[in-house]
Amino acid sequence: MNYNIYPLQFEPILKERIWGGTKLKSILNKPIISDITGESWEISTVEGDVSVVSNGVLAGKSLNELIDSYPEDILGTDVYKRFGKQFPLLFKYLDAREDLSIQVHPNDELAKKRHNSFGKTEMWYVLQADENARIIVGFKENSNANEYVENLKNKTLLTILDEVKVKKGDVFFLETGTVHAIGAGLVIAEIQQTSDITYRLYDFERVDSQGNSRELHVDLALEAINYNKIDTEKSYNTTLNQSNTVVNCPYFTTNFLPLDGKVEVNKTGNTFTVYMCVEGNFEIECNNTKFQYKKGDTILIPASLKAFILNGKASILEIYIS
């Protein structure tokens, strides 16, 4: 690269959703202009929604342009070897004023066959939870396609699905095939494979302002669903100034880093790193320059930026590919 590489931030890509609200602004400082903003896509290369750099000398350039010009510098040697010039992850914040639809995502094999896409393994970190907020994840007991279809027909699907009450700091890891829904009253950080493939199973009989129901994908979902009871909640340590492993899967590793003071970071150049600031404020010091961050900020550390210092008082999600 012909300039000093630095931590990159991107313009948030804001999405109106029937279930969205205003907490992305009030809690995470996002520049929303609508009272039904459900998602802020923080780092994305989904077609039609490619992130654009918002800071420094690269401002205005898209993430795809940077990867195209400097694939190993941005992605890392191992990630480039494995994925080519594709950015393999998608980072979002979500505000659920109402329940999201009950949905499922296909695995890599099915998504490739049907949509020429990655599957969508994902994880949720709960940033804020109203009292009694809950999520729907998987089945209460092992089920099967017949039981699922029968309950869908009778509008009793909720009776066989598992509901879990959640609080701030809870983490859920959803492998492909897990039937799920984010419940009302939650703000969530979501880390997932780069994919926008969702099969909607049930939408609580909702209609939009024109009286239209949203499309359901009942048949497509049949083959995608894992009908077994599964444990999705992840417990993790919160040791200060250390990267505490939360999720370690083939698609991404996520650590929880409670920062209080200074931490020196040294990387290998094998992978990019992303930091999501879920509480507090901190700075990154590199190449004799300090970059300031606050709650709600998402930062991409290019792989070629191997040594830097974190300093501040913050809770940070640290994500990379191992």
TrEMBL record:
In its keyword annotation, does this UniProt entry include Isomerase? yes
Q: What is the lineage of its organism?
A: Bacteria, Pseudomonadati, Bacteroidota, Flavobacteriia, Flavobacteriales
Organism of origin: Flavobacterium soyangense
Mannose-6-phosphate isomerase cupin domain spans which residues?
A: 245-320
Which positions does UniProt annotate for Zn(2+) binding?
A: H105, E122, H180
* InterPro entries found in the cross-reference section: Carb_Metab_Reg_Kinase/Isom, Man6P_isomerase_Firm_short, MPI_cupin_dom, PMI_typeI_cat, RmlC-like_jellyroll, RmlC_Cupin_sf
The lineage's top-level taxon is: Bacteria
Gene Ontology BP terms: carbohydrate metabolic process
Active site, UniProt feature: R200
What are the protein's UniProt keywords?
Isomerase, Metal-binding, Zinc
Q: Which residue numbers delimit the Phosphomannose isomerase type I catalytic domain?
A: 10-117
Q: Per its Swiss-Prot or TrEMBL entry, what cofactor is needed?
A: Zn(2+)
Please report the name of this protein according to its UniProt entry: Phosphohexomutase
What the record notes about the co-factor is: Binds 1 zinc ion per subunit.
Q: Does the keyword Zinc apply?
A: yes
Q: Name one GO molecular function term.
A: zinc ion binding
What the entry lists under Pfam families is as follows:
MPI_cupin_dom, PMI_typeI_cat
